[in-house]
Amino acid sequence: MPAPSSSDRVRGSARPRVASYTAALLSQTAVPAWNDAHRGLPYVFTGSAAASGAGHGMLVAPVAEAGPARRLAVGGAAAEVVEAGVRPTRDPAHVVKP
């Protein structure tokens, strides 16, 4: 497999920023469900983008060369799970009162 070109590296480095920027745009709307999650939404979107991109990498790469894609998938999924688990305890608006 040939080494990635400089344009491949630039495109690859821009993808996480695009995913998190989309989350920032959505969280700044007047829709309460999106606006309430404005702090954690970029982490969820970026983790999801990483996991789905890694899934594509695992599909197209030979099994012996898919190690980096597997690690990225685990990292992306972990980011989503951690943010989903931390969010209800971090935001007082979502704490259930007795």
Features:
single chain; 98 residues; mainly alpha; 0% strand; flat
How many helices? 4
**Which percent range describes the beta-strand content?**
under 5%
Q: Report the major sheet.
A: none
What percent of residues adopt helix (DSSP H or I)? over 70%
The radius of gyration over CA amounts to 17 Å
Tell me the distance between the termini: 59 Å
Structure summary, number of beta strands: 0
Give the overall shape, derived from the CA principal axes: flat
What does it look like?
The chain has 4 helices and no strands. By secondary structure, the protein is mostly helical. The longest helix is centred in the last third of the chain and has 24 residues, at 67-90. The model has no long low-confidence stretch (mean pLDDT 75).
Blueprint of the fold:
Elements: H1 6-27, H2 32-35, H3 41-60, H4 67-90
Helix pairs in contact: 1-3, 3-4
Short account of what is shown:
This protein has 98 residues and is an all-alpha fold. The protein contains 4 helices and no strands.
